[in-house]
Amino acid sequence: MDIVEGDRDVFIQKYAADFIADFDSSLGPFLRKPNGQLRRRVRSRETSRLISAVLEHFQELPQLLDPHLPKWLPALASAYLECLQDRKRSSRLSTRSQLLWPLPNAICRIIYTFCKVRGEKVIVRFLNVETKYLELLLQAIEDSERDTDAALKTELITSWTWHERYVVLIWLSQLFFAPFDLSTISSGDADEFEQPTLPGFQWPQHVPRITSRVIPLAIRYLASPGKEREGAKALLVRLAMRRDMQEMGVLSALVHWALSTLKSADDVATVSPYYFIGSLSFLAGVLRAAEDTSIMDQHLSTIFYAVQAIHSEENDIDKVINGSALARKMMIKVTRSIIAIILRKSRQDMADTEMIETTIGYFLERLADNDTPVRFAASKALSIITLRLDPDMASQVIEAVIESLNRNVLWVKDETDPKAVAVRDLTAVDPLEWHGLMLTLSHLLYRRSPPLENLSDIIHALLIGLSFEKRSPSGGSIGTNVRDASCFGIWALARRYSTTELLEVETPSILIARGHDPTASILQVIATELVVTASLDPAGNIRRGSSAALQELIGRHPDTVETGIAVVQCVDYHAVALRSRAIHEVALRATRLSSHYGRALLEATLGWRGIGDMDTDARRVAAASFGTLTAELARTSSEKPLDNLATTVHFLLSRIRGLETRQVEERHGLLLSLAAVFDTIPGFIEEGALGDQANSLPISKVYNDLKEMLQKSKDTKFRKPELIAESTSSLIVSATFMLLLSLSDQGQHDHNFRALIRQGSFLVDEENLSLSLNALDFIDSVRTSQPNLFDDLLEIMESCVNDWLDKNEPEAIEPSSKAALILLVLTSPVKRVEIIRGWSEKVRKPRTPRNRHGDGYFHALTRSRPILTHFTSSIYTNAKDISVPQVLKQRWASDTEIETRVAMIRSLTDRCMLRLESAIFVNLISEGLDDYTTNARGDIGSHVRLEAIKATKTLWQTDDSYREAAIRLIPQILRLAAEKLDRVRTEAKSTLATILLPEDAKTLQQLSSTSKAYFAFLFKARSVIQPSMGACDNTPSVESCMSSLLAGLVTSADTGNEDLVVESRAALVEVCQSSDNALHLTCSLLLRNLKQYAGQDRVLVPTLEVVAYLFHVGLLQRCYNTTTGLIDASTTATGGDAALQILSLKQLCLHVQKAAYKTGNVRKLEACIKVYGAIAAVQVETPTPGIATYTRMPESAVSAGRLDAGQTASGELARVRQEEGIAEARKRLGALLLHPWPKIRNLVVDELWHVLASASAHSGNTSKGGNGGRGMDDDDGPPSDGDGTKAPLMMLLGIDWGTADKTHVKTVVKELGLE
């Protein structure tokens, strides 16, 4: 219902200074190098950033750019001209790279963006207009389009985009403002060159050379479908309207050419509609430029009848033209300019009058066009012409528009009430025509064309349009544009007419205003309707438009609207942005200002903008608003509040009875509205007079109608039963108060009963369990004297509730479970036990998919637990054998369906039963946190994990005595807080924050769940939990938490989206680099996870990838120490100090070998190969006296430092064991080189290349000088052995390893020493 997006105008106001500073500082380096030389190419990414991330934000407030345009645009223009002047250098630019754009292209893209944001007419004024550049620009665009042979084309600038052509064309049009005759600035004599032949164009004599070059160029682009057409039109119009060109006959020649294109074509089927659009746009341009002159008088009739002939569709050309909305718009512009020129004359003849009348009829017809741009153009044109007509004729035009609004309007009487006034029915009207008519009225008002005697009819039409709505066959709204035009019309009315003129319009003369106070002025009526529209309209732009019109109305006509200033402050432009806030808050504040607004809002809420809205969420909000508005009006009414509320209840019940079965949406909204009214009644009840007040409410009628509605819900098959279930369940909960109030005679002396005079929602609230139990005890006490209390109602209610609980729709589950709790409260004790037992038996065992029960039963059971506990503590021993926790636990153990498990955990979330039985449910939740079920739909287990996280949050938000059992879930939440799924990670972050210290929780909530800082924070989260949780005996250790965290983080670091991979790996590296202890602990836990998650490829493969990555960045090589043994999973698992361990390469190889054993997972094999390669690339140097060094030497890790171990006995042992690990890794690579899959063999060869290259580089570095100083960076060929034999790297080249012979592969393996 609410479109969650930031207000762009507010956003740009806030950050405009930053954007401007960014562009200003970036423009210089973007155009020029540090030495001042102009760049040849620029990054496409930087150009796109300046356009999309900076300039386009200013489309909401483009005037903010005005102070900076005189600086930026001349700089761009001069740089572009400099590029053109240095064309020899620019012509050699390569455009093959998509990452680089030529500088002229990038400049034109930026200039075009300025034109789009600020407007072409504003931007073109800042371009250089020195006449000397006319020839340069013209030659450049000619060169870009000249047809040459292929060899020549590669040497010229041929990569022009439409941005460049558009910018150059509008720039040329600006240069043609030069006050010199074109013959004086043309290069060469016109007689020296042959004029090009243009179909339909006759060249006048002695045309300057520059004219003969521009006209073919402009005509060519005039038929373009892109923005070049607009530039070409501007250029051609500017050229034709020059005085020297008019004297030479160029204007007449171009007009005749344009008319000829509209009459004939060689092959209509192949001609683009843009060919004709270009000609019409040129005619519209020259006529618009000549409106205040007599230049075009001789062509008016010819052009007019040529355009009218197109409208008649006499040939194929006319059909092509009329088939284009843009062409029809241009035809309207041409005709409008012709009539404007005719009306400029002091006297018109009969031919002129005939053209005027024909045009008005044509425009009225175009108001119903299917395309919005055409309707816009027709309405604007009609208003411009009407303004220039005589008053009598102008009044006739306005009457014709108003009369069109009454076409197809039906008046329908209510069959149930013959005395009722007939109601207007707009179902038969054309919404497109209404849009055009409303636009016309609005434009007429904006130009103050209508006389005062027509204002009454116009205001009536605008007020109807303000609430106009019609649905398409598919259910979409097609009335929004009508309401938008009405807002514009009311804004124009308030702006153009004085207060005195508007107050002369009598309110009774406005038919739609008869529902308002007869004494209210027409301005008050308009203001009230605007408040209603601004509060309730479903379209955000209509709400804001109404707010703007209201502000204009009250500001222009002070002291005419009740509490005007306060209303403007209430119905603020920004306050109505969100519909939910507008319906709830704005409507209520307006009602408090005056009941005049409240009554109108209440009436409108019962219409299509409220409870009749097609959007379900909107109906819920409107129903809640109806209740609050009704209570507010009752509170300020002169009548007794309860009498007022009783009248509203009667009205709603009668409306519900009159609904058809098909009116599901209206029934849903009315039932929720009635429930909202019931919820307001307790606020008006006084404890001292319960009996009298109960008599003033229609309790018996509500009781009988409630039975009738439940029976209808049971017997009738509705189109959307889940909506009926939701609304009727809500009504039962809210009507509980009315049922209890009927027992006021028995409870007026019971002090517990007075506490029950609350809204029905309080009885089902988890936080008010004592209230529910008090109500239960009170009902039981009354039943001792009235055994059949509510039995007839409860019998129907039980059947309906069971039907509703059997639904799986989310909107029905929660309300139906609340209604189930009310059923238990109102029914007899024996029946309660039977109902709960029946629910338990239904839930206890799994069902087949065809017989599967609804999820509502889980929620009903969890809600019934307090009542069941109340039974077992009383005399009802027959309820003691029912245990809801055991029922749910049994169902969980026997049912692995994801949907069932999601429903079960969801029913526990935010329930007191979960807190009270935490010891029972913690294992269930723990299983849910570890659910990674995957099928063809993907990771469907994520739904279970998500709900389990929410349930964990419920446990952790309880008292310390209840959440102790849930502390062991910390490692799992840490794992989920780091895993790759965004929604799971975000929910886990919110849950984790509940057990942290307040300052740390606030820090965590402010971090993005995809940021490096967030992942780094997770590593220290275990140390900042609340002391009450950290001091428990079963609090997980730091190693356990980190191990689980790494199991989740590796999935983000391997298979997450690109940004997530980068940030998570960066955080892991940062933690490892923070200290040696952190590095050793991380390495040991990664090895531990390789053993712990063996067989779980979900964690195992990412862990292998991360291990390979840590080798790649040179971190794992630092895990050496001279004092102790080796890192392996066993020492870590037994509590060994991982900070004092040495990385065992052989142990790592064994873990990797187990992971790759008989696997068909290609990704796992690829990860294993990477780890083998990383181990094999570690170089163990011969120890010199005092030092033994262990290094890995791939190109990215050469600078990572060497791994030293002291020359002690333990150091020598470590060196030997590392050599064994390296040998084992090389052996495994050799074995995988014989793998049956070609892809695996190719991956092994790639890894071997890096290993052997690293070894060669290491050998070259240690023996440089012994072999002539030859190494890998020499250019004399691949490295070779000292005796001249071929280097090992050469053995990997020249072989297709995917199809290589097995014998040859074994030979290579043997020669490389990989056995």
Structural class: mainly alpha
* Largest beta-sheet characterization: 3 strands, antiparallel
Shape: flat
Q: Detail the poorly predicted runs.
A: 89-93, 147-158, 1121-1141, 1184-1208, 1262-1286
Number of strands: 9
Strand order of the largest sheet: 7-8-9
Radius of gyration: 41 Å
pLDDT averaged over residues:
84
Helix fraction by DSSP (H/I, runs of at least 4): 55-70%
Number of separate helices: 65
Bin the strand percentage.
Answer: under 5%
Distance between the termini: 68 Å
List the helices and strands and how they pair.
Elements (H helix, E strand, L loop, with lengths): L7 H24 L9 E3 H11 L14 H17 L1 H4 L9 E3 H16 L1 H4 L8 H14 L4 H4 L8 H14 L6 H4 L23 H14 L5 H13 L2 H6 L1 H12 L11 H17 L10 H13 L3 H7 L2 H20 L5 H17 L5 H17 L2 H15 L4 E3 L10 E3 L5 H16 L8 H12 L13 H17 L2 H5 L18 H15 L3 H17 L7 H7 L8 H15 L1 H11 L10 H21 L4 H17 L6 H17 L9 H6 L3 H17 L5 H21 L2 H4 L3 H5 L4 H4 L5 H15 L7 H15 L4 H17 L2 H16 L11 H17 L11 H11 L3 H11 L3 H5 L1 H12 L11 H16 L3 H4 L6 H8 L4 H11 L5 H9 L5 H8 L7 H4 L7 H18 L2 H17 L1 H17 L4 H16 L13 E2 L1 H5 L8 E2 L1 H12 L5 H15 L1 E3 L6 E6 L10 E4 L2 H24 L5 H25 L39 H10 L4
Parallel strand pairs: 5-6
Antiparallel strand pairs: 1-2, 3-4, 7-8, 8-9
Helix pairs in contact: 1-2, 2-5, 3-5, 5-9, 7-9, 9-12, 11-12, 12-15, 14-15, 15-18, 16-17, 16-18, 18-19, 18-20, 19-20, 20-22, 21-22, 22-24, 23-24, 24-27, 26-27, 26-29, 26-30, 29-30, 29-31, 30-31, 31-32, 31-33, 32-33, 33-36, 35-36, 35-41, 36-42, 41-42, 42-44, 43-44, 43-45, 44-46, 46-49, 48-49, ...
